[in-house]
Amino acid sequence: MSERAQDAERMRNEPGRPSGTGGAGREPDQLADRLREIADRLRSPEIGEEEAEALAREAADLVGKASAEIESDLRSTRTEESS
Predict the structure, then answer these.
(1) In terms of pTM, does the model score above 0.90?
(2) Rounded Cα gap, residues 14 and 28, in angstroms
(3) Angstrom distance (rounded) from CA 15 to CA 61
(4) Are 22 and 67 contacting, i.e. CB atoms less than 8 angstroms apart?
């Protein structure tokens, strides 16, 4: 694994960043900021294939978590409205 790919993997597993097993508690703004960071890095001409793959996996994970949070918030709102 290249050094950049290893750095990307370390950032993925860094405390405060979501992991594959749960990033609950991250604020939506933090998720959006991280997705912007990933997008910026993916635009870089120096990015290697391994790092790009690691970043793409992280982005997909973040989007999935954000989607789950949105669904949960919608369910909560519907429950509150029907009470």
Answers:
(1) no
(2) 18
(3) 16
(4) no
Which distant-in-sequence residues (6+ apart) come within 8 Å of 65 by Cβ?
Answer: 18, 23, 24, 26, 31
Quote the CA–CA distance of 22 and 38 in Å, as a whole number. 19
**Which residue, chain included where needed, has tokens 């909560």?**
76
Residue whose token pair is 């789950």: 68
Contact 66, 31 (CB under 8 A): yes
Nearest to 58 by CA among 21, 27, 2, 12: 12
Instruction: Give the start-to-end residue ranges of the domains of the chain.
Output: 3-9+25-82
The answer to whether residue 7 scores a pLDDT higher than 50 is yes
Q: Which two tokens stand for residue 38?
A: 């990933």
47 close to 41: Cβ distance less than 8 angstroms: yes
3-state secondary structure at position 60: helix
